Amino acid sequence: MLINPHFPLIDLRADEAYQSGHYLEATHLPWPDLQIRLNELPERPARLQLLGDDLALTAASAFLINKGYQISCQMSLERFEQFRQKYPGLVVLGRESRILWRASPLLFAFITRYENKDLQPSVLSGKRLALDIGCGGGRDSVYLACRGWQVIAIDREQRVLQRAQQLAESSRQNLTIDWRVCCVDAEGCLPTEQVDLIVMMRYLNRDLMTKMDQMLNPGGYVIIQTFVEGVEAFGSPKNPNFILKKGELAKTFSVFNIIVDRIEHLKDGRPVASFIAQKRESEDVRNECG
User: Fold this and answer.
1) What is the domain partition of the chain in residue ranges?
2) How far apart are CA 129 and CA 150, in angstroms?
3) What are phi and psi of 47, to 5 degrees?
4) Among residues 34, 45, 56, 74, which one has the least CA distance to residue 170?
5) Is the separation of the CB atoms in 223 and 199 below 8 Å?
6) Among 21, 105, 171, 209, which has the highest number of CB atoms less than 10 A from its own CB?
7) Which residues are CB-neighbours of 280 under 8 A, at least 6 positions away?
8) Distance CA 172, CA 174 (A)
9) What's the pTM value of the predicted model, to 2 decimals?
10) What Å distances lie between residue 246 and 192, 228, 234, CA to CA?
11) Per-residue pLDDT tens over the stretch 9-65
12) Choices 3.10.180.10, 3.40.50.150, 3.40.50.2300, 3.20.20.10: CATH for 105-288
């Protein structure tokens, strides 16, 4: 059984075995650690290949299928040894592991435009300080930190934030991320200084949105992507407190320069509002007021 280069290969073996020889394009996610490191996998429903002993293959395959992934093939240790002997040039030593996760497309597109200077000029603080609210598995926080931003990442669940911290550690870079386990309405949770970027993905807090103008430095940006009217038909979420109305973000941020305001659909069909806006600098406001 050959490894298909079009599908990610997840190597389930322990560290020592992996470092002693692995497929050069493999991603190392040992079993059972994989169960708490789903944030390091590509978006579902990706097709994956697995390599490991029989027990790990059986358990990991059942777990991943239950989570919505597809398993294209499973390679036993015996098969891997045959592969190793037949294709020695495709087996390497060491800890290098292919990165499969990605930041949200909306944030990635923003950073690309920002770095290409394809946005209205702004004077951000020297820190380039970002606030990721409801950071979850940490993909966006780690991505921003890798791009040179200082990041404050907030989530109310300790176990979720531990996964995010693991993701940061796997990057093997000295990232500047301030991880905070807290609720946004708790004293001391939110930063007291103004930030340059606020990210809020698949989370909705209307009270907090009305305060974002004060939380941002002049010229700073807000990026929001969360569920919008129509998602109820898909079963979740149903609570209107967590569902945006169409046009609601444009109304809430009417004093901002709106860059992106559109409805998109996740792979499972659920509609989300994708929104990017920039806080106007004081000079812009004075000019508009005459």
Assistant:
1) 9-92, 105-288
2) 5
3) -95, 130
4) 34
5) yes
6) 209
7) 218, 219, 255, 256, 257
8) 7
9) 0.88
10) 31, 7, 17
11) 999 999 999 999 999 999 999 999 999 999 999 988 899 999 999 999 999 999 999
12) 3.40.50.150
| 274 token code pair | 């994708």
- Judge if the upstream peptide bond of residue 45 is cis by omega within 30 degrees of 0: yes
Whole-angstrom distance, CA of residue 47 vs CA of residue 41: 11
Calculate helix-pair angle for 139-146, 158-170, nearest 10 degrees: 30
Residue 123 has a CB neighbour count (10 Å cut-off) of 10
The residues that bridge with 228 in the sheet, in sequence order, are 244
Query: Does CATH number 3.90.1010.10 belong to domain 9-92?
Result: no
Longest CA–CA separation in the chain, Å? 77
Residues with Cβ within 8 Å of residue 81, at least 6 apart in sequence:
none
